[in-house]
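Example A, followed by Example B.
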Amino acid sequence: MELNTNSPEEARIETLEKLVDELMKEVPEESLIKSYMEQSGLQYSKDPIGRINIVLKALHFEEPSESQ
């Protein structure tokens, strides 16, 4: 039995990665998309373009600059 030692943020990123995988399928399963979006704290949208936009915004973060 493997214990989940991920932080909440790591768990959220894993869920977002699963969501992206599902969204990229030729025929994505809507129930999975809705579930992953809810688990990630994202508002569900039926619009495929809107969903991708929401997910990209959720995944966006600024990397630290090399000079710091």
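Example B, a separate protein, is given below in the same form.
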Amino acid sequence: MKRNRILTAILLLAACVAGLWFAFQMVQQISNNEREKISTSEFSETRRQADSAFEMGKWDQAIEFYEQMLIADPFDGEARIRKAWCELKFANQIEKSTEANIGPTESNSPETEQSLRLIAEAKEDLEVCLDSPFHRNLARRNLAQIAVREGRQEDAIQLLDEAVKDGYATNEGIENLDDFESLLENSKLEAVLKKEQLNRGSMYRRVFSAPPVN
């Protein structure tokens, strides 16, 4: 009889422990769901702030917000392509501001190092975007811009050619973009321009232009 009472007590204790564990798991699940809701809300607000900074040309702020978004969702192609665009714009801004205020900078100056770091980060982001069918043409276009900056004209033309073969077209025409002015004397660009012109007249082109900026 005594042994039965002990066994019953053990079973009741086990049932209590199991009940407490189940209750704890339910509380954890509710807590996680609440945190997820908060995270989603914060993510939406971060996107709004990022896009607002982007539209206003506040490149450094936009980069920070897009970085936060990519930490939360590394597969957000729109955030990554915009971050890369901002990095290129910010690098240009630093170079122009520095040249206007203190003249040409030394190759090892803080301004030059910051600009090169931004371009390197943009290149990394754009190479990731090459895997996205929705963003690869803009990635090629911006990688071509970097290639021009680095004096790699053949690489730039190849990237633009790959983009237009895939349906890419700008609204302005590649020949009218300052980024590619130095390519106009290269005879290989002519075939690219002809393909792009056909794409502009097609309803099936995949990417119309780079993100709008002020």
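On Example B: DSSP finds seven helices and no strands in the chain.
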